[in-house]
Each structure stands twice: as C-alpha cells, then as structure tokens.
Specification:
- By secondary structure, the protein is an alpha/beta fold.
- It has 2 domains: about 190 residues, Isopropylmalate Dehydrogenase, CATH 3.40.718; about 160 residues, Isopropylmalate Dehydrogenase, CATH 3.40.718.
- Helices cover about 40% and strands about 20% of the residues.
- The protein has 12 helices and 14 strands.
- The strands form 3 sheets. A 10-stranded mixed sheet has the order 2-1-3-12-11-4-5-10-8-9, with helices on both faces. Strands 6-7 form a two-stranded antiparallel sheet.
- The mean pLDDT is about 95.
- The structure holds nicotinamide-adenine-dinucleotide.
- Nicotinamide-adenine-dinucleotide (NAD) binds next to helix 4.
- Nicotinamide-adenine-dinucleotide binds next to helix 4.
Length: about 350
C-alpha cells in the first residue's frame, strides 16, 4: 500500500498528521503501508514555484493512493490563475484521470443535533453523492472573457459531456447502488440543457445493465430543494461536475459539519485520491481546533475502495463512532455537555479507540 501524503495548506498539515497516526496504527498491526510526503497547492508554489510540482506529479503517479489535506490561502489569492493553489487540485484530478468523486453524507446518531435541519428529517441519513469530476463546464473549452463589438466584455464557458464520460461514471453509480439499497437518482437539467439531455439518455441506457437498481431522474433545482425538504428519499445521487459540486456542499450541511465529511476520487482501476470535503480553513489554521475526522474517515474510504480492505475501513469508522460516543467534540461539532477537544487530541483519541 504505497500512499502519497500531500498535506497542502491551512489546516491541511494538522488534519493530515492525525490521519497519518491512524495509518501508523494500521501499519503496526500488519498492513504493509508505505508513506511518502509531497507538496501541493500553496505549499507546492512555495517549495517549487508550482501548485502541482513535477516531483509531486511523479509521486502521485507511482503511488496506489493519495491522501490530501486541503489547498488554498489568502496569501495566494492574487497569484495569476495557473499558479493558484486550486489549480494544483484540478491538475492532480485531471492528471490521474480521477473521474468519479464519491462523497457520503452520513449523519451519526451522536451528531443529529448538530444539523441545521430538524432531527427527524436527518436522523439515520445515509446518502452517497457521486459527482463526475473531470468533465463539464469546469474543463470545457473555449472559455474566457472577450470584448464585444460594442466594447462591453463578455464572460463565457463551455459545458460538454461525451457519451463515454457519462457512461463510465454511470457504471460507478449503478455499482455503488448495487452495494447499497439499489436506488439511484440521476440529477440533471434536461429541461434546459442539451448536455443534460444526452446525460439522461445515456444513464437510462446504462440502467438496462442493472435491472435491480431503481433509477429516477430529477432536475437539479428540484434536487437542491428536496435535499433540505426530505433528504432521506435519496440513496445514491449521480450527477455532473458543477451540479455535484453544489449539491454535495449542500448535503454536507445536513450532517452538521463539513469537518465530518470524507471523499474519494477514483480512476478506472480504483486508484484514488482521498481528501476531506472541506477546504483549508485559513481562519482556524495553526490553532489546533480543526476537526480531523473527515480526513481520518477519508483513510477509511481509501482502505475500502483502493485497497479493498473492508475490515480496516470498518475498524477506522468504528473508532470514530467510539470517540463521538465518548462525548469528544472539536469546536465545529461542540454542544454543551460534551468535552471540547483539539485537533491533535481528537487524533490521539481515535488512535486509542483503534
Ligand atoms: P473551507 O471549507 O476552508 O471553510 C469553510 C468554513 O468551514 C470555515 O469557517 C472553516 O473554519 C470551517 N471548516 C472547514 N473545515 C473545517 C474543519 N476540518 N474543522 C472545523 N471547521 C472547518 O472553505 P472556504 O473558507 O470557502 O475556503 C478556504 C480556502 O480553501 C480557499 O482558499 C478555497 O479555495 C480553499 N478550498 C479548498 C478545497 C480543497 O482543498 N479541496 C475545497 C474548498 C475550498
């Protein structure tokens, strides 16, 4: 299990250090884990003048899996676009062909009161959002800002999806649904966008190979509404890059804190990049208050999806549940009566529970 560790910026190094402690325990207990560190994002720019330096690219290519903290920081906001930290993320996803982004939104019974929604709406919630990650309007060409004949400037981007891009991510969606409760909702905007009309046609076609899965289609505006109205109606949500970006952040709030949410981005062979859903949280960086659980749970996803070690995955998830049951809480999920814990102490508690 060769793992590239890219802490990145802001709280990235603090939270990744806790996940590395978990990997150390798994190694001590017999898994053949090798870890090698590299720079990405602002840290890559500082070290090598590039948010995705050549050495990091090489490291990522030769590893089986990548664990990433987060990228971004105020000090990089005025850099030219190709040098911005976020470009490091887009390039590693594209470079490794990580087209399938899995983001579970799961409400732990202990945290049901941290959600902004009523407990009865979210209690027991367990959704898997599958977002296509390497196509759509974020990568489409042409794009830019041009000056029109009347002297006014116009911004433009191009949304496109090819049949093969839709087909391969749809297969991942149906396979995930088969392992869960066999329900898949494909989200698009087929009433307005041609790209979405093709999306719907191909997803419907792929569904013929998975007759046990109940397929439904929903327009993205309705999906955004249904996610806060009755989120438990969903099991697997399959959607494109931009819609998935927005809906998965919305779904994260159903669970209480973005600090609890892991993610996996996979290629055709289940090589994966694992990272928390949140960003680099520069507002709390260096204060030992960040929640490391999303990053630790990302290691559980790595064990499950890249290394097919369900035992290790469940062991980590059980340890996280156990610290929550003990009443330990970082500031983002704190409620009166619980024990407020820092980032490193939370990592230690998970290690102890393991
Ligand atoms: P953010 O996710 O970093 O922070 C949003 C809010 O959530 C902040 O109040 C933050 O303190 C809090 N938060 C986030 N993670 C937390 C954690 N683990 N524990 C406790 N609280 C946590 O989003 P933002 O503020 O919009 O962006 C900050 C920077 O991160 C920007 O530079 C942005 O581009 C970048 N970003 C990176 C990624 C990524 O690396 N995948 C994703 C989103 C944003």
């Amino acid at each position: 299990m060769k793992i590239a560790i890219l802490p990145g910026d802001g709280i990235g190094p603090e939270i990744v250090a806790q996940a590395a402690k978990v990997l150390e325990v798994l190694r001590r207990d017999g898994l053949k884990i090798e870890m090698e560190y590299g720079h990405i994002g602002g840290a890559g720019y500082d070290a090598a003048g590039d948010p995705f330096p050549k050495e990091t690219e090489e490291l990522a290519r030769t590893c089986d899996a990548v664990l990433l903290g987060a990228v971004g920081g105020y000090q990089y906001d005025n850099l030219p676009r190709p040098m911005r930290p976020e470009q490091g993320l887009l390039r590693i996803r594209k470079g490794l062909g990580l087209f399938a982004n899995l983001r579970p939104a799961l409400v732990y019974p202990e945290l049901v009161n941290s959600s902004t929604l009523k407990p009865e709406l979210v209690s027991g919630l367990d959704i898997m959002i599958l977002r296509e990650l390497t196509g759509d309007i974020y990568f489409g060409q042409p794009r830019g800002i041009k000056t029109l004949e009347n002297g006014e400037r116009q911004g433009f981007d191009t949304m496109h999806y090819s049949e093969s891009e839709i087909r391969r991510v749809a297969h991942v969606g149906f396979k995930s649904a088969m392992k869960r409760s066999k329900k898949l909702c494909s989200v698009d905007k087929a009433n307005v966008l041609d790209t979405s009309m093709l999306w719907r046609e191909i997803v419907t076609d792929v569904a013929r190979e998975y007759s046990e899965v109940e397929l439904s289609h929903m327009y993205v505006d309705n999906a955004a509404m249904q996610l806060v109205r009755a989120p438990k109606q969903f099991d697997v949500i399959l959607t494109g890059n931009m819609f998935g970006d927005i809906l998965s952040d919305e779904a994260s709030m159903l669970t209480g804190s973005i600090g609890m949410l892991p993610s996996a981005s996979l290629d055709e062979n289940n090589k994966g990049l694992y990272e928390p859903c949140h960003g680099s949280a520069p507002d709390i960086a260096g204060q030992d208050v960040a929640n490391p659980l999303a990053t630790i749970l990302s290691v559980a996803m790595m064990m499950r999806y890249t290394f097919s070690s369900e035992t290790a995955a469940q062991r980590i998830e059980a340890a996280v549940r156990s610290v929550l049951r003990q009443g330990l809480r970082t500031a983002d999920i704190f409620e009166t009566g619980m024990q407020k814990t820092g980032c490193a102490a939370m990592g230690d508690a998970v290690v102890a529970a393991l």
